[in-house]
Design brief:
This protein is α/β, with parallel strands linked by helices. The chain has twelve helices and 18 strands. Helices cover 35% and strands 18% of the residues. The chain has a seven-stranded mixed sheet with strand order 1-4-5-6-7-10-11, with helices on both faces. Strand 2 and strand 3 form a beta hairpin.
């Protein structure tokens, strides 16, 4: 503890009425800020911060105190009052925060002479409320509960500064007023007159830049940036990892026994695979095919949501890819939906390393289920059986001609049956290995 600073408040759980929806949001925001401060991921160093639930500040206009939801006080050595005061109000409505709430909160802030006010919500802001808050120098925070995330990172996005492409930055700013938006990975999105960010550090630092403090660097923590932590893996490295994983279980030209592989891994490391026949009572949506929880070493499959056995096999192989490629260094949770098996995640995922992790897991899954050597041998066998000829366009050539299309479909169906995958997965694997010259346009096939 630095000399001249107030003693920290005793650590205690946030007291709240669990029946009140708004209080639940207050508790979530409180715990988020507390974790960031304790871990040194907040903008100001822990010794300078006091995070207060239900703080009271005196209003001269009223002649009494006003109680707010939360506040963060920033103290400097020897001071008798906070150098910076951030007051936070939590609004958890079934609709966007209206402009009247912004006006009312701003009036309260003036009465207590707070440095900055922040409104936190789950559901976004009306456009007029958003505009007014920014014009009056207030901060806006939209929170997304981790329980609804598809991916949970080892280091939360709120604890880092993310490099955001300009196009994604425009999309990010629109999140503040889009009531329907749900984030698959971001903890929160913050906005102020300084711009939009996913980083609590950057958000509070921007708000503090308007203050009279001469040297903010004395109380600042180190900037942390996310992205670039996941190494690039050559395709051959992933292929070799899948081959070593399958070991002796893979017989040439036959489908890999994934259950036998998972049984071996269970005895080796304790990894469990649970197959749920129904999703009743489970916290998953109808699109969820599977997920892996790294801390618990559990892979779950949701049979009810899969269209067929082939899709379930690829889902399990995908989650095994995360496991065997060591993605627990970057992820706590991965949730797999049908769209994730089609290729690279889009949208806000591009701002994190998730994009790279998902590509690696999909490549591993294809390599595990359709090993290069045995898959290529199977292609050669069916190619010879059909008495096909390479006319200089590639081993397998498909265009708009009915004959070429029929041969291509016959080959894919044969390969899909042998390796226990879908038609689309077999077609994508042909393309990955350079065995297919598809002139019909970009493949739009699901594994």
């Amino acid at each position: 503890m630095l000399k001249g600073l107030p003693q920290p408040l005793p650590s205690k759980s946030f007291a709240m009425n669990t029946t009140a929806k708004g209080d639940k949001l207050e508790a979530a925001i409180y715990e988020l800020f507390k974790r960031l401060i304790d871990n040194g991921d907040f903008w100001a160093k822990k010794d300078y911060c006091r995070l207060l639930p239900k703080p009271k500040y005196h209003s001269r206009d009223r002649g009494s105190d006003i109680t707010f939801d939360l506040s963060i006080e920033i103290w400097t050595p020897g001071a008798d009052r906070p150098a910076l005061l951030y007051v936070i109000e939590c609004k958890d409505y079934n609709h966007a925060v209206p402009v009247d709430d912004v006006e009312e909160f701003h009036d309260k802030l003036k009465q207590i002479q707070a440095h900055k006010g922040i409104i936190a919500t789950r559901g976004g802001f009306q456009k007029s409320a958003h505009a007014l808050a920014k014009n009056r120098g207030m901060g806006l925070l939209r929170y997304f509960a981790p329980s609804r995330h598809k991916w949970i990172l080892e280091r939360t996005t709120s604890a880092n500064i993310i490099s955001v492409p300009s196009k994604s930055l425009q999309e990010l700013a629109a999140v503040m007023t889009d009531e329907e938006f749900e984030s698959p990975v971001l903890d929160l999105v913050c906005d102020s007159t300084h711009g939009t960010t996913t980083s609590v550090w950057e958000f509070f630092r921007n708000l503090a830049s308007d203050s009279a403090l001469a040297d903010l660097s004395k109380i600042e923590t180190e900037i942390k940036r996310i992205g670039g932590n996941v190494p690039y893996l050559e395709e051959t490295v992933i292929e070799d990892a899948a081959r070593l994983t399958a070991g002796i279980l893979h017989s040439s030209g036959t489908a890999l026994d994934l259950d036998a592989l998972c049984d071996l891994e269970n005895r080796k490391s304790g990894l469990k695979v649970i197959k749920h026949r129904t999703t009743e009572g489970l916290t998953v949506n109808k699109h969820t095919l599977g997920r892996i929880v790294f801390d618990d070493k559990i892979i779950e499959l949701f049979l009810q949501n899969a269209k067929d056995e082939q899709q379930l096999r690829f889902t399990l192989a995908h989650e095994l890819g995360h496991y065997y490629l060591g993605h627990q260094r970057y992820l706590k949770l991965d949730t797999c939906e049908a769209d994730d098996l089609e290729g690279i995640p889009k949208g806000f995922i591009e701002m994190t390393d998730v994009k790279k992790l998902e590509w690696q897991a999909n490549r591993f899954a294809a390599s595990l289920l359709m090993p290069r050597t045995s898959f290529t041998e199977a292609v050669a066998t069916v190619w010879e059986r059909l008495d096909m000829r390479n006319k200089g366009h590639g081993l397998i050539f498909v265009d708009g001609q009915p004959g070429n299309q029929a041969a291509f479909e016959l080959i894919c169906r044969d390969l899909a049956r042998k390796f226990g995958v879908s038609f689309g997965a077999a077609a994508v694997r042909l393309e990955q290995l350079g065995l297919l010259n598809d002139q019909r346009g970009k493949l739009a096939l699901r594994p």
